[in-house]
Amino acid sequence: MTSERSDPPAAGSLDKAEELVAAEAGRFVQALEDFDNPSQEWRRLVSELLGTFFLVLVAAGGGMMGQAFPNTISRTAAVVAPGLMVLAIILFMGKVSGAHLNPAVSIAFSLRGDFPWRRVPGYIVVQLAGAALAAWFLQAVVNVSATYGSNYPAAGYSTGDAVLMETVLTVGLVSVILGTASGAQNLGVIGAIGVGAYIALAGLWGSPISGASMNPARTFGPDAVGADFGSYWVYVVGPLVGATLAVGIAYVLRGRGGGLAGSGAAQGALFTEAHRPDQS
């Protein structure tokens, strides 16, 4: 009785397979290195997802860690930490996506003419996703409800009070962002310091009433994971109204947007589009 044995694969077939794999790997590496190729805009979305994840990790993490470990994190530390995180994020990935990290900022840049409207939906989706991932991670690791990391109107204050506070705080935040992005005040690293400092200062005095979110994504993450959207509308309406007012203020102070400096700050260095390239 004879046993059947399959013949070993031909050496030529293995060589062709290796060549094919090498060619595909080479094309992949070349695509990654072709930073100015418009088809590589997925980098922007990855950047916004990662940046918003880290922002909410710190912003929501303060309240959740405080609940898990009482008397370890002060309110001052909890509101200053997000400002420092935003400063760091702008420095390490601002040139890729503009480091919006906030749907209100993306919309403000588009209203200003510094950011294409076609990119806004993708930015908002990944910002919300990054925030939800951060809240889910915190709830899984810290083992307390994500609601402890969210924002709510303070007891004794109405939702109207909270909306007004979020509106005013966001006017300041977006004004700082648009101002430091403009040609006259575009100072690179100094802009990152200005934005981070404003977030910390706004939190120090405004957080007792509304939590000083200024960011629909920052509040969405904990609310989605904690399944509590009762007051979420406050943190959508306030920031969006505030961002719109800030765009109007920017027009009064500096005229139209869409120049090279503002577009570069809003979009990063990846295939930047400027509506008015003749402007600074």
Report on the architecture of this protein.
This protein is mainly alpha-helical. The chain has one domain (40-267): Glycerol uptake facilitator protein, CATH 1.20.1080. The chain contains ten helices and no strands. It has helices at 11-33, 42-68, 75-97, 103-112, 120-142, 159-181, 189-210, 216-226, 234-254, 260-267.
Overall mean pLDDT stands at 85
The CATH architecture: Up-down Bundle
Reported for the largest beta sheet, the result is: none
Order of helices and strands: HHHHHHHHHH
The first-level CATH class is given as: Mainly Alpha
* DSSP helix fraction: 55-70%
Low-confidence stretches: none
From the 3D structure, determine the CATH topology: Glycerol uptake facilitator protein
- Global shape: globular
In total, the number of strands is 0
Rounded to the nearest angstrom, the radius of gyration is 23 Å
- Within CATH, the superfamily carries the name Glycerol uptake facilitator protein
- What is the distance, rounded to the nearest whole angstrom, between the alpha carbons of the first and last residues? 87 Å
Number of domains: 1
